[in-house]
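Repro:
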Amino acid sequence: MSQPPNPQYQQAAMPGCWWHPNRPTGLSCSRCERPACPDCLREAAVGFHCTDCVQAGRQQDRVQQKQYRDAGYGARTLAGAQPAQTAVVTPVLLALNVIIFFITVAQSGSISSNNLSELFQLGELANPPTLANNEWWRIFTSGFLQFGLLHIASNAFSLWFVGRPLETALGRVPFTVLYFVSMLGGSAANLVFTDIDAVPVVGASGAIFGLIGAYTVIVIKLRLNPTWLLVILGLNVFITFQVPGISILAHAGGFVAGLLATFALLYAPEKNRLGWQIGGMAIVVVALIGLIVWKDAQTVSAAYCQLTPYQGQSVYLCYR
């Protein structure tokens, strides 16, 4: 006559959980094979893993993902750059414009006539000092100068509204390059297609129109709904032609430069993409610089420019 199995004997025969030795268990981790109670096991793709193996696996995954990204793979922006969750370049550019504006206001003592400040006069895109006196820094410094409160407010709003989503879509480095290439395009168009005595121009709108040109390429490439783009473009074109004193050439030049630069970024072949992108950008930049050099060759040089006192103000004058 057989005796029934002794539960205490069976319980003693089972190993204790690795983390709770007082808990006998017949289960084990399928990765490290240590005995584990149900509370210490997690379902995995194959079998069950203990909590230590789950944590070690997550750490290993993070290391592998970082190595994968550092090698140039993984998630990418439209331009193939490292993705950024938040915009950084756009707020920095916006802050620079605002800070420089208030510096010119402090120098001139007027918020509506800040163009009388020395910084403003030394940085605006005026043809005589730029072409005849080789003050080439004005090509970029003029893009950070704004004339009056309405000008800085409108450009700041446009840059914030247009720049942030474009920066996250392209990546910080491509966005920064795009911005300055667009600024170069706006300045080049104004220098090349105006005469030597043209009115000086300032403002970030040339670069902002370049960002709008970038949106045009994105809409075409991704076949997006163009309604939002047409509204923004139409509004800016209306302001360009209706508000007096705005440089149409700078806006058009920035738009074309931004469009071409974004085309080079987004339509570069996948193989050796960075090399193709740099080459495409270089072609755009060299073409713009070539136009400026050609215009400079047509201009009588060796002008003498200086800040001259005039009616209680310092005025930057050039003599040829």
